[in-house]
Amino acid sequence: MEGTNNESGKAGVSMDVVVSAGGKPVHRVDWITPEEPLQLVLEQGGKRMDLAVIMRTPLMDTELAAGFLFTEGLIASRDEIQSIELEGSGQGEEGNVIRVKLSGDVRKDVEERRFSVSSSCGICGKSSINELYVRGYPIIRSTGKVDRSVIISLPDRMRSGQKVFLSTGGIHAAGLFRYDGSMVAVCEDIGRHNAVDKIAGFMLLSGHMKREDYVLQVSGRAGFEIVQKAVAMGIPVVSSISAPSSLAIETADAFGITLACFVRDGKFNVYSHAERLNWD
User: Fold this and answer.
1) Strand spans (E) along 33-171
2) Which of 121, 124, 187, 261 is catalytic?
3) Per-residue 3-state assignment (H helix, E strand, C coil) for 233-268
4) N or C: which end of the chain has fewer CB within 10 A?
């Protein structure tokens, strides 16, 4: 499953809009990024739990559910997922419920956690680097290097796979790339953290997880929630077209991630582990 990964779901919703043109109102049709709630239901050990309601763009819901469970530390591998079933087609209430059946008994931490995730919040109650250490995520020690020219090229390479963005102009994206710049997957969502979770789900379900020499490219700022998901996925390099936060930098430095930000106009800043870059 290579290349862009937006084959299913809504590319946009058509709506009437009044445009101010030359001082006179003009009626036109505009394409808008869809945003709908997804109810994530877990079935495990004979119990059913309403775990989360995620505000998202209805694309790649299967990957979103799997990636959310993985980056939140509720599952550790693909083998824990017995089935994922989306009820309906993502249109209306019947299409906004996804059921994930997990193997084994219900873990206490799963029973105790409930989430309500907006399209702008990806931290979900986590506030420190220490929790990532508690989960047992290893420090990334890959020694491969990526060329400066590849990092500069990634925003444009990712944009070529942003089908919804081309229609609406109002959606985030996350891209998974190899060190040579080749595209593995591009995922889009109204929430930048959801787009990254979709990448995590893609990696988990397609067997790409925990491989070295990947770059995660994101369309928005590099906040803590983005970097902590890269830590969970074991991705050595995170590239962002916008600014980092102080906690994102601290997290990237602590876990061995190269963090490149303001990647645009042929330049970028590196905030941690610049030794992973070739500057020639």
Assistant:
1) 36-44, 47-56, 81-87, 97-102, 115-117, 146-147
2) 121
3) HCCCEEEECCCECHHHHHHHHHHCCEEEEEEECCEE
4) C
Question: Would you list the domain boundaries of the chain?
Answer: 36-127, 146-278
Tokens describing residue 202: 């893609």
Average pLDDT, 10 consecutive residues per value, the chain (280 residues): 41 72 74 84 89 91 96 92 80 73 70 55 55 84 95 93 68 94 94 94 90 90 94 96 95 97 96 95
pLDDT at 108: 54
* Distance (Å, whole) CA 70 – CA 24: 51
CATH superfamily, with its number, for domain 146-278: Cytidine Deaminase, domain 2 (3.40.140.10)
Residue type for 228, please? Q
Which segments of 103-256 does DSSP mark as H helices, in order?
Answer: 108-112, 130-135, 148-159, 163-168, 192-206, 224-233, 246-255
Q: What is the pLDDT of residue 187?
A: 94
Q: Considering only CA atoms, which of 251, 267, 15 is closest in space to residue 123?
A: 251
Q: Is 121 a catalytic residue?
A: yes
Cβ atoms 145, 278 nearer than 8 A: yes
Distance (Å, rounded) from C-alpha 185 to C-alpha 183? 6
Q: Report yes or no: 271 and 277 within 8 Å, Cβ to Cβ.
A: no
36-127 has CATH 3.10.180.10 classification: no
CB 7 within 8 Å of CB 63: no
pLDDT of res. 124:
46
pTM of the model: 0.85
Max Cα-Cα span within the chain: 65
